[in-house]
Amino acid sequence: MIDFKNKTTLITGGASGIGKIMARLLLERGAKVILWDINTQGIADVIAEFKEKGEICGYTVDISDQEQVKSSAKEVKKEQGVVDILINNAGIIVGKYFHEHSTEEISATAAINANAPMIITSCFIKDMMDQNFGSVCNIASSGGLISNPKMSVYAASKWSLIGWSDSVRLEMSQLKKNIHFTTIMPYYINTGMFDGVKSKIPILDQEAASLTIIKAIEKKKVMVTLPGWIYRVTRLGQAVMPIKMFDWFAGSIMGIYKTMENFIGRK
Ligand SMILES: NC(=O)c1ccc[n+]([C@@H]2O[C@H](COP(=O)([O-])OP(=O)(O)OC[C@H]3O[C@@H](n4cnc5c(N)ncnc54)[C@H](O)[C@@H]3O)[C@@H](O)[C@H]2O)c1
User: Fold this and answer.
1) CA–CA separation, 60 vs 260, rounded Å?
2) 12 lies in some domain
3) Which of 4, 130, 140, 161 could join 29 via S-S bond, C-beta 3.0 to 4.6 A?
4) Could you report the per-residue pLDDT of 173-202, keeping only the tens digit for each?
5) Is residue 130 part of a domain?
6) Distance, CA 19 to ligand 1 centroid (Å)?
7) Test site for ligand 1: of 94, 142, 189, 197, most ligand atoms within 8 A of the Cβ
């Protein structure tokens, strides 16, 4: 078990959605919380709302900009010390057919969802290795386990995140380091990021989803889908069914392939 008390935690995308809720849950468990977000006003609002709960601060960072990430990481180390627990949570979705994406939208999605977690982790992991303690939680998506129309670029970024996150988990274990990697793959959550989505499978509640993630970090869980059965159903279904049969199962029975038809997203 990881005890969050007095641990320094950094959450990207902490100004809204599950990032904001996880910040509150960590403060309630006695952790010091550092928010990174592109939304300066959002950071200020979250700090104002939660400052009575514990030690919280924030930095405006565009995590798609490597230079900003590196200089903010330096600032954090100087001002806040070693980051013990890192939650790579910030993410974006464009939500169009692939051919409708601009090249800028493709690059931004890859930079924020896939590359930034690697760059940010590379800034903090050596300190974790030196103190032989740390935890990195990467918020991927069930879209990283299953193909889905109007989600191709997002899916690409999350498949990438899952492969990287779980590979570094193995590296830390091979190197006998007490550093844990938890990869989270949620189904749709009602934060507003996926507004307009219609789903046969119930959309997750943001408060409950955030609590499950914090408990997964606490219990050093490795690969976690929300809900839990999604992992077994997708992995097993893909393994035993021919692709056309799996398409029928995921598309018609589970209704997944049409979920994005009326996507609006966060404006
Ligand atoms: N909401 C869902 O249905 C759902 C499902 C599966 C996975 N996820 C993943 O969970 C994570 C959090 O999602 P959410 O629903 O809370 O989203 P959200 O939109 O509420 O929050 C995302 C946060 O990331 C910040 N952000 C965006 N671009 C940034 C950048 N370039 N630099 C720094 N910060 C940036 C935003 O300002 C925002 O505060 C994302 O990685 C998302 O892909 C969400």
Assistant:
1) 31
2) yes
3) 4
4) 999 999 999 999 999 999 999 999 999 999
5) yes
6) 8
7) 189
